Give the backbone structure.
Amino acid sequence: MRSKLIIANWKLNGNWSFNEEFASALSQGLKGIDLNDRQIVICPPSIFLQQLGGLIIDQAIYLGGQDLSEELSGPFTGEISGAMLKEFGCRFVIVGHSERRSRHAETNELVVKKAIKAIAAGLTPVVCIGETLEQRQGGQMESVLATQIDALLSGVDQLMNQVVIAYEPIWAIGTGQTADAAMAEEVHSWIRERVSKFSPAVAQNLQIVYGGSVKSDNAEELIKMSNIDGLLVGGASLDASQFLKICQAS
């Protein structure tokens, strides 16, 4: 049985006092809740990883990076390697988020390289895929997702059992719009079927999480779907009380 994975992507947010308050509220709120069937991941800006690593002591809460370099080391100003993230206690790292793909021109090839580097460093890459509103309305959703998935399958190959896929319809990120549960389930089922052509066993065990304006009032409906194995939460993850409700809904 696939466990539920709830990931908080803080993006460019957080500060020393906010982090302390959030960690305290999260730890208190999760007391008495059985977390055996789920994992909770906090992905703050990398400069806060050490601080949060000292604040979060619950064994069911993990740290994650928001991105990593495809390089191991060298003259790459501003980059952070998988080994560095691992040293700071990370277990996961987000790879290929749509904001990275659009703002930093990350290609499918680069995303695959990053995923491989993450695995080599002992991290679980959460590889984001998704389509724009224009692509969905133009009937291109499946072809866009297929291109992203197939690049991942061929590039990562036998290491696919160490990957998480995050489906984030780009038109729903930060817009307040969201795919309803039935719509999201349909796409997740399609993704799993696509992966099954590569390996039925990998597809069966693959965690596929949904992201895109996830909030406490839609989390429970989404997480009930059989092919939705978790949630990638953006803005709502900055509100400790709302994020707790999302974790409880899972």
The chain has one domain: 4-249. Residues 141-156 form the longest helix (16 residues). Residues 51 and 158 are 35 Å apart (CA to CA).
